[in-house]
Design a protein that fits this description.
The complex is a heterotrimer of chains A (445), B (734) and C (315). With 445 residues, chain A is α/β, with parallel strands linked by helices. Chain A has 3 domains: 53 residues, 3-methyladenine DNA Glycosylase II, Chain A, domain 3 (Orthogonal Bundle); 248 residues, TIM Barrel, CATH 3.20.20.20; 122 residues, 3-Layer(aba) Sandwich (Rossmann fold). Chain A is built from 17 helices and 17 strands. Chain A starts with a helix and ends with a helix. In chain C, α2 runs parallel beside α3 and α7 packs parallel to α10. The chains are: A alpha/beta (445), B alpha/beta (734), C alpha/beta (315). At the A-C interface, α8, α9, α10, α11 and α12 of A face α7, α10 and α11 of C.
Chain lengths: 445, 734, 315
């Protein structure tokens, strides 16, 4: 990483004009330093300074965008080897591979698998991002027709793959407005495809036979002025190449490797289960685009979850919405429990309540993603704030009783809470979620 | 070592070795050198010989060789009046004694295979259990290693009466100690005395009748050396390793009852090698050998009602209390209970009556562990709704106890007492407030139970620093007032100690890595003048925490060479931070905001940052929700300061640190501060006064802007100019 | 262009630990590089999978997990034999779930008898996993250590609250301990130090960093493991240079998304394959972070992961 926030600040106009949307230049500088703002937001900055800051603060792996509008997918932008060092920035794009050798039925069935695979979890929508269309038929028309069809049937980002440069160029020109990824420039064709990508400002995949050739082609393309590249080392057991590419970019600042990668689990095995396992390796170790043969619920759902886990910001806990969660067939006599909105807390507690088979109301209070004890220590889960939340949550209309189970670790506030909620009886739950089933069974017995 | 003891030990050793030689030669005559000998069911041969020499004694021939070696080890008998035998010679004499005794006992097994029962408990016709086999050693040895048995007592001889024998045995038993008995005094043994009194003996009651002769004492040593080999990974023949392991890990002592014979002394000299002290009821010269251990190895003339406590004190045994004997439930779930007026039975302190709490450290000899005394009426003498003056004095003693830990232990009273069902505790020191509910009173809860709780919990939670706890509760006005007066003195002294500590004079700082679970590269450095940013840990807390939990998150760091006194940078601190941060942070300035600032986790009380236009610094606390002149709210600032990264210009700090003379010293200290939230100003106004006076601006707080002046730099700058704020004239901050 | 591979300067090695006895010994650990970074170091012993067996028939398993074992779930010995004979298990993990005081609460001697029987009837290394109740585990695991003397078991979880009692017993009877801490590198290190102070030998300690399955906190376990390996291999942190074990199957198969039927949630897809992949992907992530032993359940998931290990070792 380049400049510290303070160093960036020194180069800003120091007018606190607020035109960038942030009240002070210092705050803006810090946003730039943490990659949360774009330099262009400041109207008063000179081009020179812009370049100076931009270069210095650019991540060692370039952020490449494929697709447009809501379906624009960012990949790359990575700055670390291990997620605990800071965070992984942009999750690898899961991609469905379609071939112009497939018949219409197969195409539409696979595409509907892709389009259906949309899941919501902790208010985050998870889905596969891209569709790759590969020309295998040696029939440029067939390829172009398929591209056209897919363009009409999905607004997902696209990867256009064809060894026939002519056919590929034709297809790219047709849908260049969608900013597809062009696959792929090689030692043989890089001049044509490089110029095409430059002309249409589309991202370009680069394929080499091994890392050395890959680097050579990249250098040539960089020389031609291309900025948005995606790397394919050609290897079909990719772990080692992935590690080397990422290390070169981060540790040696190798320009040729300062781009996200594309990997093809779908070409490494003919078995979807096994393919899913390989895709999972590539989530952990540095895949930028992961191309899959099929999108089945049972395979893509766990993959999406694994990806979400690995790409969670370790310093910013995931949260769930503050509200009443009903678990099981609740009624007006069901017990009421409360805990914080750290997503892991929510998942574990709700899982245990579910396992108890005792229907219950789970009140989730906004604790800014802090766990119970930390939230309490930080004043976000004290008796006063809990009482306020319980009152406004609307739980009192849903139940006849007035008993609230608080986490065992919060025993210290029970008295205070009883004073804040005079109609309520405060019960001390267990300290560990795993003891909830036993506790709830006893409570409801 | 006293000459008398040395000569006696050597004399006794000669007798025993000669006896073994005679016995061994007789046996050789009868069975020949290839005859197998050994103790039952053990893979350690004759364990003391095996452990010390690495020699497996399997036959009479092997035994004879060991005895030959004993002869060379044995120092000459002291005849010459002027010759002073060395300590080493006595210890060697003791060692030969034990080797010889093992051989004697092994021959006994050979001659009379059923001389010992080879069982865990005595039989009707034979009460002597003999050597513990490996099964017993493993099963019981685990208890020594895991702490469920704090140690063992080896008893030689017999008590003057059966009653005394029983009393001593029960006292030891109550402390969960194993009692290993051997040797007679005037033809009587303690084992027989216990049986006579109807006490059940055997391994199952921890009262072990090894044998009638003093030579059976070697079974106790044999037990310890095997434990060292089995649990300590000590190799056979690792002489020093075995001795050191037992000295540090196996808490054993010898109690002698009756006149001390030369043979006993020889045995004792053997045991002393393992750091086993001797406590005698008969007169004996005191012995201290710093090379072996820091406690007295021989203490004589101890009365029978003192002898167990004395032994425990000397050997420094940690007492385990597993159950707290009070009529109410106890646990964290009761911590937050309120006792409301209508449920109230009894209260003290809280402005209603005098109330005071004090924990002090004392010398080991001044504290009687477990003593709980109530001076004045208890709850059962008070009517419902009544109250009493209340003073609680907790006296603790311990080898590792330091006066600096007193306030930390005292602060525990609050949660320890609150854990009792039906009891509410608020405050501390002389503002404490205690309420006891009707339900508790009905169940027979008394003030003495408070003492029991504190005694038990101090032992349980602070066993590393506390060996003895004694509690006195006063409920008479006059006595409470006296305690209050002396407590006030103590409080003043303590506060002075904390205030008086400066970073320059302390060589050791502490780390805190408690928060690395979410900020992996963050390392907090806590110095006397820079408390932990969470506000929960000051330097003394860390010191105590390290003493209580030596492998825990607070580690001492010798600060080493000072690179920069103004910025606060030391060599060893850098080294530690570099390692503990996984090489992410190589340098730290403890007193700087702008250059290599200390990293932060996320749980700091405040964030300090720069206000460039004002050439100053602002601090905002977590509770202040509004916008600040930096253009960022607390949460945004917290995101920048936290996460374990060094972000120049952003610092996570405690409120206390603002009032330190080392507060951002590198940037000019307190004089740099141009903006604080009003509530923070008020909160620190007391503590910060002396600093304001230090910088020569007693009303400096009034020069600092707050949210009533403005939320932006533009708004507060005119205010600062008008007040003539010193920061405006200081060197440029950036 | 010649690629100059930036290599990591490793300074440490994970300790090699040999488990079990006689001809069925298994060695784990010994790696001198990050997981499967074989271009710059070695992994002499590929990660191993232990198949789990329960001390009594489980009640809350989905059919898909139950199906392969339906004929043996009532008999831990038969179950273990089936894992070995039919599914080729290299290790067995006996889960002492019915000792849980909040559940069946079977007494320690009864539990020990079950463990003894299983240990008598199988040859491969045997892991004994308690019910994760500090006090009950102390009692149960100690009894098992005693009664299974000479079997060189792997016992756990040993936690801060019972490490002395279980650790001491393990030393006495020569078993290996699983040092278990709640997803925190410093606590893991501290427990290892404490076990070392207790004289548990270095080749008798395995780290359990605690597992969160995918969707349920996997990232925490993942990063703690990566940090443990970074510290162990590049920062001379000796007290972290131990192999890592994860008891993952029981956490995976209880999560909601695995148990819900395809009719209830059509988008989640085929129930059995989904369960298998939840387990296999959790295992795969753990392998990428440095796992040495994975305790797993479903034969198909195990098959997938075994194949993946083989591929990664040969790449």
């Amino acid at each position: 990483m380049g400049l510290s926030g303070i160093e960036i600040f020194k180069k800003l106009p120091k007018t606190n004009c607020g035109k960038c949307g942030v009240p002070t230049c210092l705050a803006f500088a810090m946003k730039l330093a943490t990659g949360q703002a774009e330099l262009d937001a400041c109207p008063d900055i000179s081009e020179n300074v812009k370049e100076e800051i931009g270069l210095a603060s650019a991540p060692p792996v370039r952020t490449v965008v494929i697709g447009i509008g809501e379906r624009a997918t960012k990949i790359g932008g990575e700055t670390v080897l291990f997620r605990h060092e800071k965070r992984f920035e942009n999750p690898p794009a899961f991609t469905l591979l379609l071939s112009d050798n497939m018949d219409d039925l197969e195409i539409s069935s696979r595409l509907s698998g892709f389009n259906n695979a949309v899941y919501e979890r902790v208010s985050v929508v998870m889905k596969p991002e891209l569709v790759a269309i590969r020309g295998d038929s040696a029939d440029p028309l067939r390829f172009n027709t398929l591209v056209e069809k897919i363009c009409n049937e999905t607004d997902a980002g696209l990867i256009l793959m064809n060894e026939d440069v002519e056919a590929l160029s034709q297809a790219v020109r047709k849908c260049s407005g969608r900013k597809p990824l062009i696959y792929a420039a090689t030692m043989e064709n890089y001049e044509i495809l490089g110029s095409l990508a430059l002309e249409l400002s589309c991202p370009l995949a680069v394929k080499g036979d091994g890392l050395e050739e890959l680097a050579d082609v990249c250098d040539k393309l960089i020389g031609m002025g291309l900025k948005d590249l995606v790397l394919d080392s050609g290897a079909r057991n990719a772990l080692e190449d992935q590690i080397i590419i990422r290390r070169c970019a981060l540790m040696k600042k190798t320009k040729a490797f300062g781009f996200p990668t594309i990997v093809f689990p779908c070409l490494m095995t003919g078995n979807l289960m096994k393919e899913t396992i390989i895709a999972c390796q590539m989530i952990a170790k540095y895949g930028g685009i992961i191309v899959l043969s099929e999108i089945e619920g049972y395979s893509i759902f766990p993959l999406l979850l694994a990806r979400m886990n690995i790409f969670t910001d370790p310093q910013r806990p995931m949260t769930v919405e503050e509200k009443i969660y009903e678990i099981g067939a609740v009624n007006e006599n069901s017990p009421v429990l409360i805990t914080g909105n750290f997503s892991l807390t929510y998942f574990i507690v709700s899982g245990e309540v579910e396992a108890s088979h005792v229907p219950a109301y789970l009140l989730i209070k906004d604790t800014e993603g802090l766990s119970v004890l930390t939230a309490w220590a930080a004043g976000k889960f004290g008796a006063d704030t809990i009482a306020l939340f319980v009152k406004k949550s609307g739980i009192e209309e849903k139940i006849k009783h007035r008993r609230l189970v608080i986490p065992g670790y919060l025993a210290a506030i029970s008295g205070e809470l009883e004073e804040e909620l005079p109609d309520w009886e405060i019960l001390i739950g267990p300290r560990e979620a795993s003891h909830l089933p036993a506790y709830l069974k006893q409570l409801s017995a | 070592m006293s000459k008398i003891i040395c000569s006696a030990a050597i004399q006794g050793a000669h007798k025993i070795v000669s006896m073994a030689e005679v016995k061994c030669d007789e046996a050789l005559e009868k069975w020949g050198p290839d005859q197998n000998i050994g103790f039952p069911n053990t893979t350690y041969y004759l364990p003391v010989i095996y452990a010390m020499l690495g020699t497996p004694v399997e036959t009479l021939g092997n035994a004879r060789e060991v005895l030959n070696k004993c002869k060379t080890l044995l120092p000459a008998i002291v005849k010459d009046e002027s010759w002073l035998p060395s300590l080493d010679s006595a210890l060697e004499a003791g060692m030969s004694t034990l080797f010889a005794e093992e051989i004697l006992e092994a021959i006994k097994y050979l001659e009379k295979p059923d001389c010992y029962t080879k069982t865990e408990d005595p039989l009707i016709d034979n009460i002597w259990l003999g050597a513990a086999d490996d099964v017993i050693m493993r099963k019981r040895g685990v208890e020594f290693v895991d702490g469920s048995a704090p140690g063992f007592a080896i008893i030689l001889g017999a008590a003057p009466t059966t009653e005394i024998a029983v009393k001593i045995a029960i006292e030891l038993q109550e402390k969960n100690l194993y009692v290993l008995m051997c040797a007679d005094h005037d033809g009587k043994t303690m084992s027989e005395q216990l049986i006579e009194a109807g006490v059940q003996i055997g391994w199952s009651t921890r009262l072990v009748s090894f044998g009638q002769s003093y030579t059976a004492g070697v079974f106790a040593v044999g037990f310890a050396v095997r434990a060292a080999m089995s649990f300590g990974g000590i190799k056979p023949g690792d002489f020093d390793g075995n001795l050191l392991f037992c000295r540090g890990g196996i808490f054993a002592f010898i109690i002698t009852l009756g006149a001390i014979t030369e043979e006993w002394v020889a045995n004792a000299a053997g045991a002393i090698n393992w750091g086993v002290p001797i406590i005698a009821d008969a007169p004996a010269p005191k012995l201290v050998v710093p090379e072996i251990c820091d406690y007295e190895l021989i203490t004589g003339d101890i009365s029978h009602d003192q002898i167990v406590q004395k032994a425990i004190d000397v050997r420094g045994l940690k007492i385990k209390i597993s159950k707290i004997d009070i009529p109410m439930s106890y646990g964290p779930a009761f911590e937050g209970e309120r006792i409301r007026k209508e449920d109230l039975y009894f209260e003290c302190g809280g402005g209603k009556t005098l109330g005071v709490e004090l924990t002090v450290s004392k010398d080991m000899s001044e504290v009687e562990d477990g003593k709980i005394e109530i001076i004045g009426p208890d709850i059962d003498e008070v009517k419902e709704g009544g109250s009493l003056p209340f003073g609680i004095l907790i006296e603790v003693a311990g080898r590792q106890m330091q006066p600096d830990f007193e306030p930390i232990l005292e602060r525990q009273i609050h949660h320890l007492v609150n854990y009792i069902q039906g009891v509410m505790h608020i405050g501390q020191r002389s503002i404490m407030w205690l309420r006891i509910g009707k339900a508790a009173a009905e169940k027979g809860f008394l003030l003495k139970h408070l003492g029991k709780v504190i005694h038990a919990k101090y032992h349980q939670e602070f066993s590393n620093i506390v060996d003895k706890v004694q509690v006195t509760i006063y409920t008479k006005e006059k006595k409470v007032r006296e305690l209050l007066e002396s407590a006030k003195n103590v409080y003043v002294q303590r506060d002075k100690r904390v205030e008086g500590m400066v970073d320059e004079t302390e060589e050791t700082f502490y780390s805190c890595t408690l928060c690395q679970s979410f900020a992996p590269s963050h390392v907090c450095i806590i110095t006397p003048e820079r408390t932990g940013m969470c506000g929960a840990y000051n330097w003394l807390d860390c010191k105590a925490s390290n003493e209580i939990n030596p492998t825990g998150p607070n580690q001492p760091i010798a600060k080493g060479e000072c690179f920069d006194t103004v910025k606060g940078q030391w060599k060893k601190i850098n080294d530690f931070v570099s390692r503990a941060s996984g090489r992410k942070v190589e340098k730290v300035n403890a007193y700087s905001l702008m250059e290599f600032p200390m990293t932060a986790c996320g749980c700091f009380e405040c964030v300090a940052t720069i206000l460039p236009m004002c050439n100053g610094v602002m601090v905002v606390n977590r509770d202040f929700m509004g916008m600040t002149p930096s253009g960022m709210k607390f949460t945004t600032l917290a995101g920048l300061a936290g996460g374990g990264n060094q972000t120049p210009g952003f610092l996570g700090i405690s409120k206390h640190y603002i009032c330190s003379r080392k507060f951002i010293k590198a940037e000019g200290g307190l004089k740099r501060v141009v903006w604080l939230p009003k509530m923070l100003k008020e909160e620190i106004s007391g503590l910060i006064k002396p600093i304001c006076e230090d910088i020569g601006i007693p009303d400096f707080l009034d020069m600092i802007a707050d949210e009533t002046v403005g939320f932006t730099e533009e708004e507060i700058l005119p205010f600062l100019q008008e007040k003539g704020h010193p920061a405006l004239a200081m060197g440029a901050l950036i | 262009m010649r690629i100059d591979i930036p290599r990591v300067a490793y300074t440490g090695t994970i300790k090699e630990i040999t488990l079990g006895r006689n001809k069925n010994k298994i060695t784990i650990g010994g790696e001198s590089c990050y997981p499967f970074h074989l271009f710059e170091g070695t992994m002499p012993n590929p990660p191993k999978i232990a198949m789990e067996v329960y001390d009594s028939a489980p009640e809350d398993w989905p059919d898909s997990a139950m199906e392969p074992f339906a004929d043996v779930v009532d008999d831990p010995v038969a179950w273990a034999r089936k894992c070995i004979d039919v599914y080729g298990a290299e290790m067995i993990a006996l889960q002492m779930a019915s000792t849980d005081p909040n559940g069946k609460n079977i007494p320690a001697d009864k539990a020990a008898a079950i463990a003894k029987k299983v240990s008598d009837e199988i040859e491969v290394p045997l892991i004994i996993w308690g019910c994760e109740n500090v006090d009950k585990d102390t009692e149960v695991l100690r009894s098992i250590c005693e009664i299974c003397e000479g079997r060189d078991l792997i016992i756990g979880p040993v936690v801060e609250g019972n490490y002395r009692a279980i650790g001491a017993t393990a030393i006495a009877y020569n078993h290996t301990v699983i040092a278990s801490t709640p997803i925190d590198i410093n606590l893991a290190k501290q427990l290892n130090i404490l076990l070392g102070n207790l004289n548990v030998p270095d080749d008798k300690i395995i780290i359990d960093p605690s597992i969160g399955p995918i969707g349920y906190g996997l990232e925490y376990t993942y990063s703690v493991m990566e940090r443990i390996r970074v510290a162990a291999l590049t920062q001379e942190d000796e007290r972290l240079q131990y192999p890592i074990i994860l008891n993952l199957a029981k956490e995976v198969w209880k999560i909601k998304e695995v148990n819900v039927s395809e009719t209830e949630a059509p988008l989640y897809g085929h129930k059995k394959s989904r369960g298998v992949l939840f387990e296999a992907l959790t295992a795969q992530c753990m392998l990428m972070a440095g796992a040495n032993i994975l305790i797993m359940r479903h034969p198909e998931a195990i098959g997938l992961v075994k194949e993946s290990i083989k591929d990664l070792m040969n790449s």
